[in-house]
Structures are given as structure tokens and as C-alpha cells.
């Protein structure tokens, strides 16, 4: 069927100059996704290459950009980054640094940095590109929306939640007023706002947004559409934030089965789904069942060969599970290494929400392992930063406060035991 679609798309291009045949179904107008999307993008670029156009030709650059974007959507981030760097360099040389297409290429390149966990690099590039796009004359609303939306996500992933929430609220309200809630772009804005609301501890707002969003996406797109799966996965995270761990686990099981069907077992989204199931299983009081699931996610993430930030997040979940199993020394070793990596990584650093989560779990593990004062000190410092950076209402800050409350009474001076870095 893919070969038939390729032949149809070639026919459309040769006879009508219609490129949409490479991107959406000619009957129902739905955009292609998954393996079909990737195969058509590669075929499109192959067709353009067969024309022997110079690299600076916009038809060649456009096909290359489309292929890179589809590789991004299918989790092939390093290859996508390489192609987008080519597009950006070509447009910089041919069109110049102030051309709109050069700035758009910057946004796409920054998006790929973010997908690979390079949050600081992504945010810096997004801020620069969006500032230029917003003041340029003659730029269409769609391009401005795309740039602004990606900037909001880069703020969010960099741990700067308040500016992310402000941008996403602005975009969502504008789209809702302009085209209504059944519009795909409005729903994308709704999902981004709901996720940031959840991270900020605005639980009621997040629940209302997610409930409405999932119902609309299931009705319009169907249960197997990637956007529907993303929304369901986000709702499971919200269940976790409400400490409804059994509900989170049940929904994560459902989502993972669908992700394996849609993406395959090795796609980054599926691997995250495996991790989420493992984490919620541990939090639901089944740590012995969770451990092999989390180790499977870690092994798969290592196999991908990039995004150390996500790997550290997975390892923190494993450390939490090991501590729940009473294997405190193993947990401390796992968590120390993950925390050290996060602190030393430019994209995260000491005050990133992911680093603070690991620090909180490490603090509790240290207390459980007998290093009470070291653990208490780490929990105290972590909670102070979380309260300042995230607010005390967030799930992670609440968990840190709870762990601090559960610490034993302060030991007499000189009685504290400190574990060495080997646990």
C-alpha cells in the first residue's frame, strides 16, 4: 500500500504539481503518520534527488526539511538533526540570517535539540528565532503560531514553567476564540497548557483540560492516533500527580499496548511508555514487578544512544523502586550517579525539575540507608529550591515535603553517618 501511495504522489506531482499527496490521504484528508509518513517522506526526497537539483534549490531544501520533520516525529532524532543542520546552513548561506525561512529552519533545529534533551541550547535558539519572527512584516499567522508554540515548549522543558504557562494560555485562548475547540491546532495548544498546568500544580485546570481534550480527540481522530495517545499518557501522569497510582498504572498499561501497536517496540515514545508503566507500578505498591519493567526501559534508552537526560530520569525511577524494595545501598549508588550527571549537564543543572526530583529521591534513600543527616540536608535544600522554582503545590515538591516529614528526629552532634559515594 505504501508503494501505491508513492506512485500516486509521483503522478500528482508530475501532472498537477500537488505535493499534498505525499503528506495526506487524498480521500479523507487525514495526514499520514508513523511508518507510512516516514516512507513517503523518504520517497519524496528520493524523487527530488532524482531531478539532480542544486542543494540550494528550494524544492530540494523543502523535501529535505519535510524528511527531517518526519524523522523527528518517528524518533530518529540524530539523523533529523543532521538534515536540519544542512537545511539551516543552506538557508543561512543562500537567503541570509534575517530571512523568514532561515528563522523557521532555526525553530525546527531547536525543536530537534529539545527532543534530544538539549534544553538550554534549544531554548536559546528558540528565543532568538521567535523574537525575530514576531517583529517581521508579512509573516503569516500560522508561522507565528508555530514559532510561539515551540518557544512555550522549550521554556517548559527547560524547567521555566511560568513563562511557558503564560505563552500557552495566550495561544490557547486566541485559537479557541478564532477557530473553536475542535480545531487540531487549538487542541495542541490545549494539551500544552494542560501539561504545564499539571507541572505547576494547577490540578483542577489540568483535569478539566485533559478530560475535554481526550474526548474530542477520540471522537475526531480515533484512539490510535498519536495525538490521542499523547493525551492519554499525559492524563496518566496527572493521575500520578493526584497520587491515584492504580488509575495511573491501568491507563499506562492501556497506552503502552496502543503505542506498541502504532509505533513499534523501539520508538522513543514506546520506551517512555514502558518507563511510565514501571514507575506507576512501583508507586502502586508493586516494586518487585516494577523493577524488570524499568530495567527494560533503561536498556532500550541506552540502545537509542542519545538523550542522557531521559536516561537519568529513568534511573531515578529505578532508584526509587530499589529503595522501596529495601535495597538502599543499590538505590543510593544508582541515584548518586544519575544526580551527578544531571547537575553536570548544561541542559539541566542543579535547579531543573528533573534534577530536583532525583535529589529528592536520593535524599530519602540516604535516610533509609542510615545517612540521616546527609539525606535530611539534601531534602531540605531540594524543597527550598522546588518551592522557589516550582511552587509548593507541585507533585514533586509535595513528595519532597512528605519525605522530609518522615525523617527520624535529629541525631546528636557527631552521631550522623555519611555514606561514601559508592553507597
What are the SSEs and their pairings?
Blueprint: H1 2-16, H2 34-49, H3 58-73, H4 77-94, H5 100-115, H6 119-135, H7 141-157, H8 161-179, H9 184-199, H10 203-220, H11 226-241, H12 245-262, H13 268-283, H14 287-304, H15 308-324, H16 328-344, H17 353-368, H18 372-389, H19 395-405
Helix pairs in contact: 1-2, 2-3, 3-4, 4-5, 5-6, 5-7, 6-7, 7-8, 8-9, 9-10, 9-11, 10-11, 11-12, 12-13, 13-14, 13-15, 14-15, 15-16, 15-17, 16-17, 17-18, 17-19, 18-19
Structural commentary:
By secondary structure, this protein is mainly alpha-helical. Helix content is 74%, strand content 0%. The protein is built from 19 helices and no strands. The chain starts with a helix and ends in an 18-residue tail after the last helix. Residues 415-423 have low confidence and may be disordered.
- Poorly predicted runs: 415-423
Mean pLDDT score: 88
Rg on CA atoms, Å? 23 Å
Straight-line N-to-C gap: 56 Å
Q: H/E order of the elements?
A: HHHHHHHHHHHHHHHHHHH
The amount of beta strand, in percent, is under 5%
Give helix % range.
over 70%
> Main β-sheet: number of strands, strand sense, barrel status?
none
Structural class: mainly alpha
Output the number of helix runs. 19
Please give the number of β-strands.
0
The backbone outline, from C-alpha atoms, is globular
Summarize the structure.
The protein has 423 residues and is mostly helical.
Amino acid at each position: 500500500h505504501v508503494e501505491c501511495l508513492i506512485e500516486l504522489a509521483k503522478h500528482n506531482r508530475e501532472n498537477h504539481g500537488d505535493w499534498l499527496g505525499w503528506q495526506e490521504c487524498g480521500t479523507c484528508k487525514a495526514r499520514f503518520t508513523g511508518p507510512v509518513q516516514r516512507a513517503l517522506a523518504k520517497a519524496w526526497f528520493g524523487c527530488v534527488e532524482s531531478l539532480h537539483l542544486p542543494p540550494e534549490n528550494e524544492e530540494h531544501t523543502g523535501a529535505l526539511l519535510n524528511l527531517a520533520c518526519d524523522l523527528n516525529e518517528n524518533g530518529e532524532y540524530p539523523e533529523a538533526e543532521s538534515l536540519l543542520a544542512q537545511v539551516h546552513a543552506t538557508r543561512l548561506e543562500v537567503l541570509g540570517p534575517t530571512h523568514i525561512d532561515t528563522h523557521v529552519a532555526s525553530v525546527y533545529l531547536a525543536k530537534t535539540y529539545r527532543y534530544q534533551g538539549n534544553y538550554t541550547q534549544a531554548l536559546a535558539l528558540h528565543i532568538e528565532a521567535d523574537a525575530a519572527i514576531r517583529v517581521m512584516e508579512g509573516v503569516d499567522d500560522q508561522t507565528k503560531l508555530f514559532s510561539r508554540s515551540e518557544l512555550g515548549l522549550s521554556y517548559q522543558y527547560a524547567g521555566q514553567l511560568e513563562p511557558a504557562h503564560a505563552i500557552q494560555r495566550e495561544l490557547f485562548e486566541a485559537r479557541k476564540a478564532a477557530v473553536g475547540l475542535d480545531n487540531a491546532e487549538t487542541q495542541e495548544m490545549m494539551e500544552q497548557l494542560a501539561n504545564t498546568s499539571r507541572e505547576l500544580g494547577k490540578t483542577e485546570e489540568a483535569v478539566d483540560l485533559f478530560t475535554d481534550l481526550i474526548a474530542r480527540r477520540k471522537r475526531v481522530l480515533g484512539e490510535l492516533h498519536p495525538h490521542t495517545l499523547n493525551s492519554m499518557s499525559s492524563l496518566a501522569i496527572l493521575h500520578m500527580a493526584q497520587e491515584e497510582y492504580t488509575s495511573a498504572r491501568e491507563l499506562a498499561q492501556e497506552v503502552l499496548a496502543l503505542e506498541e501497536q502504532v509505533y513499534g517496540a523501539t520508538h522513543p515514545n514506546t520506551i517512555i511508555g514502558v518507563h511510565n508503566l514501571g514507575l506507576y507500578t512501583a508507586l502502586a505498591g508493586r516494586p518487585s514487578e516494577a523493577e524488570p519493567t524499568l530495567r527494560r526501559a533503561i536498556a532500550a534508552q541506552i540502545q537509542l544512544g542519545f538523550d542522557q537526560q531521559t536516561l537519568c530520569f529513568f534511573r531515578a525511577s529505578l532508584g526509587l523502586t530499589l529503595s522501596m524494595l529495601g535495597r538502599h545501598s543499590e538505590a543510593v549508588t544508582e541515584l548518586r550517579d544519575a544526580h551527578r550527571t544531571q547537575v553536570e549537564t548544561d541542559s539541566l543543572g542543579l535547579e531543573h525539575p528533573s534534577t530536583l526530583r532525583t535529589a529528592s529521591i536520593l535524599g530519602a534513600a540516604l535516610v533509609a540507608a542510615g545517612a540521616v543527616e546527609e539525606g535530611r540536608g539534601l531534602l531540605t535544600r531540594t524543597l527550598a529550591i522546588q518551592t522557589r522554582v516550582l511552587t509548593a503545590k507541585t507533585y514533586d515538591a509535595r513528595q519532597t515535603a512528605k519525605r522530609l516529614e518522615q525523617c527520624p528526629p535529629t541525631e546528636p552532634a557527631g552521631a550522623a553517618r555519611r555514606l561514601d559515594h559508592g553507597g
